[in-house]
Design brief:
Structural class: mainly alpha
CATH topology of one domain: Histone, subunit A
CATH architecture of one domain: Orthogonal Bundle
Helix content: 25-40%
Strand order of the largest sheet: 1-2
Length: 99
Amino acid sequence: MAQVDEALTRKVADLARLELTDVEVRTFTHQLGEILKYVDQLKRANVDGIEPLTHPLDLATPMREDRIEAPPRDAAGKPKILTSAPDVLYDGYKVPPIL
């Protein structure tokens, strides 16, 4: 395990573009040391024969049939969703050009 000292904390803060006070450096040095001790403890845990998890609960993903449905239309035959559009072009939202 790497020894965490104030110089290392200042270097990490500099790489992260953080400005730390002396009090923050002392606080974070202690906290980083505790975190690394815990990581070292986790490395020693025996995980032989344990399958990795992607989720703590065994959930089944509900599946449904894909189907295409036409959008609701107004009396003129235009999609109703366009009534909220500030500007419409060719039965779609007109947006400003970006290029």
